[in-house]
Amino acid sequence: MPGLIGRSFRLYRDDLAPLLNKVGAVEKRPQWREALHYGVFLYILLTMSEIELELKDDAQPSVVNDPELEIMLKAGLHFGYSRSKRHPKMKPYIFGQRNGVEVFDLEKVRDNLKDALAFIAELSGQGKNMILVGTKVAARGSIEKAARDLGLPYVSNRWIGGTLTNFNMIRKRIDYFENLKEDKKSGALEEKYTKKEVLRLSEKIIKLEVIFGGVASLKKLPDALFIVDPEEEITAVREARRLSIPIIGLASNDNNPDEVTYLIPGNDSSRASINFIIERVSEAWQKGKANII
């Protein structure tokens, strides 16, 4: 039970509390704001408790006796959206429905994940490159940390149209950004421009860092993309497909599985489930780099 309470609290804290704070800002009475937060947390706890009990009792008996599937269950990887949001082609990956929420078949999730990780390890072992993409709030932290640890390019804010399909032009903008940074670091900006112009260019560097900072190391088109929620990053998906660049995607039941090369069906909205998948991706990349495929 303590683990369930912890998972419920993290879901509430990371994914719902920020939204409730915005809604609650309109309400002037503190007791009503507190009641709103408490009520939502209690609902999450009761819902997750009921779903997990049903899953363990009669939904997927193999989960109880399989440590790997148990970890996936604890990460909340099995949660999808409501049936009304489900893409028809995701039906084979759905085990059932609990309290209006569709539940993924974790055995199929594991099989797909295994194939995706094998491909990622192969890429790394061949010295190839991959962009990590995840602009959802729940994905940004994990994407950025993994990219830094692995030395990979990433996009955690807005995907800039043309990043792949107009790469040469994007690369020129990145070069301009890097030259500005170098000039500021060396003091060349102060030598070339007035104080007002230096201030303007310094502000521009900050803006360009947000836009291009994650892909500054990208000297050529990537060999693959790893994407959290391909439906959310549809521009990146379309560009990659147009150039026949493989896509590995963590995708919930609202996604079209045909849009990605390697589908990882599962919860793409929770920090816990996203962290779980990205940690596995990182491990696969490191193993491949060490030629332990």
Explain this structure.
This protein has 293 residues and is of the alpha/beta class. The protein has three domains: 1-59, no CATH class; 69-164 and 221-293, Glucose-6-phosphate isomerase like protein, domain 1 (Rossmann fold), CATH 3.40.50.10490; 165-218. Helix content is 58%, strand content 10%. The protein contains eleven helices and seven strands. It has helices at residues 2-24, 30-59, 61-64, 67-74, 106-125, 137-150, 167-186, 188-192, 195-212, 234-242, 271-289, and strands at residues 94-98, 101-104, 130-133, 154-155, 224-228, 247-251, 262-265. The strands form two sheets. Strands 4-3-5-6-7 form a five-stranded parallel beta sheet, with helices on both faces. It has a two-stranded antiparallel ribbon with strand order 1-2. The chain is globular. The model is unreliable at 55-59 (pLDDT under 50).
- Strand order across the biggest sheet? 4-3-5-6-7
How would you name the CATH homologous superfamily of the largest domain? Glucose-6-phosphate isomerase like protein, domain 1
| Structural class based on helices, strands and sheet pairing | alpha/beta
How big a fraction of the residues is strand?
5-15%
**CATH architecture type of the largest domain:** 3-Layer(aba) Sandwich
